[in-house]
Amino acid sequence: MIIEYTPKGVCSRKMTIEVEEGIIKDVKVIGGCNGNLKGISSLVKGMTVDEVIKRLDGIDCNGKGTSCPAQLANALKEYKERA
Question: Domain 2-82: what homologous superfamily?
Answer without folding.
Answer: CO dehydrogenase flavoprotein, C-terminal domain (3.30.390.50)
